[in-house]
């Protein structure tokens, strides 16, 4: 698998993508049966422990955190919470993400705070990072999942929290988010009864007509575009001016499930709507 992945990247770099192998991270996992556990996975990676700005990929972490917080009775279930979860994952809505992060951490955005209040605010905003640290998974070591996602950018205390050089931006690895998404799809972290409905949030339609009606469908230009139309797909994309990412779990016809995470950075790769579908198409063919 490692040799095949290196061959794919060599070829695509030679096709006019200078420094592709420096600006991409991939985690690729295959499974031994149709309903795998996490122990059934085997795979390879490329720059898979390198930290990237995750853009909207961080919303997977925030969504999972809501389920853990609910399980521990740290927050209350409500119609508004369910609406926000749907908008955050299905439509990648940043306003919904802001609401979710406020709910999880007991913080709010607003004007800059004095030193004492800002210190207390920062401690609260680290609650998700603290939870991730308690998991003690080596794949998520030194992650930062404490920032909101923005359409125009942070202001006030949120900008202060980013740091003068944005040094406190969110930071994740492809191996780490692969393990988190795997834990969702295999019911490792949540019991099957409670996770089935939650997993539906990540389901993507591959129907061409539906996709044409939704130009931000998180399939076209991402991994889902490269797999057979009759596949079942669960995914979450991330796209902004600096990065194009995707996390995808799919069941192609007559094949066991596959999980792929691809992170790319740089203005040229952000505009490259061919690369991610091409990679998933190649990986899917190798599994046949």
Topology:
Blueprint: H1 2-14, E1 24-31, E2 41-46, H2 58-71, H3 79-90, H4 94-105, H5 115-125, H6 127-135, H7 157-162, H8 174-185, H9 192-199, E3 203-204, H10 208-213, E4 232-239, E5 243-251, E6 258-265, H11 267-271, H12 275-286
Antiparallel strand pairs: 1-2, 1-6, 3-4, 4-5, 5-6
Helix pairs in contact: 1-12, 2-4, 3-4
What would you say this structure looks like, in words?
It is a single chain. The chain is α+β, with helices and mostly antiparallel strands and 288 residues long. It folds into two domains: 1-52 and 173-288; 61-170, no CATH class. It is built from twelve helices and six strands. Helix 1 runs antiparallel to helix 12 (275-286), helix 2 packs across helix 4 and helix 3 packs across helix 4 (94-105). The two termini are 13 Å apart.
Describe the biggest sheet? 6 strands, antiparallel
Succession of helices and strands? HEEHHHHHHHHEHEEEHH
What is the percentage of strand-forming residues?
5-15%
Distance between the termini: 13 Å
Structural class assignment: alpha+beta
Give the count of structural domains. Answer: 2
Stretches where pLDDT is under 50 for at least 5 consecutive residues are none
Silhouette: globular
Strand adjacency order, main sheet: 2-1-6-5-4-3
Q: What is the gyration radius calculated from CA atoms?
A: 19 Å
Oligomer: single chain
Total of DSSP H or I helical runs spanning 4+ residues: 12
- Estimate percent helicity: 40-55%
């Amino acid at each position: 698998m490692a040799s095949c992945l290196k061959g794919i990247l060599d070829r695509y770099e030679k096709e006019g993508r200078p420094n592709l192998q420096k600006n991409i991270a991939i985690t690729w996992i295959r499974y031994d049966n149709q309903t795998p556990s996490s122990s059934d996975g085997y795979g390879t990676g490329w720059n898979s422990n390198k930290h990237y700005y995750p853009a909207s990929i961080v919303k997977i972490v925030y969504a999972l955190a809501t389920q853990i917080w609910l399980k521990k009775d740290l927050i209350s279930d409500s119609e508004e919470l369910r609406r926000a979860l749907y908008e955050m994952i299905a439509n990648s809505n940043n306003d919904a993400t802001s609401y979710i992060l406020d709910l999880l951490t007991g913080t709010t955005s607003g004007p800059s705070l004095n030193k004492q209040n800002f210190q207390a605010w920062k401690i609260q905003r680290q609650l998700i990072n603290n939870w991730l640290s308690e998991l003690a998974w080596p794949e998520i070591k030194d992650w930062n999942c404490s920032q909101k996602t923005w359409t125009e950018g942070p202001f006030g205390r949120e900008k202060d929290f980013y740091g003068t050089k944005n040094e406190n931006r969110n930071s994740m690895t492809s191996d780490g988010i692969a393990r988190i998404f795997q834990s969702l799809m295999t019911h490792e972290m949540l019991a099957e009864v409670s996770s089935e409905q939650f997993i539906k949030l990540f389901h993507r339609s591959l129907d061409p007509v539906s996709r044409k009606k939704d130009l931000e469908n998180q399939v076209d230009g991402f991994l889902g575009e490269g797999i057979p139309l009759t596949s079942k797909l669960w995914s979450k994309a991330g796209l902004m001016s600096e990065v194009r990412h995707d996390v995808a779990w799919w069941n192609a016809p007559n094949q066991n499930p596959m999980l792929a995470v691809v992170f790319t950075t740089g203005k040229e790769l952000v505009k490259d709507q061919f690369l991610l579908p091409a990679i998933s198409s190649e990986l899917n063919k190798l599994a046949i």
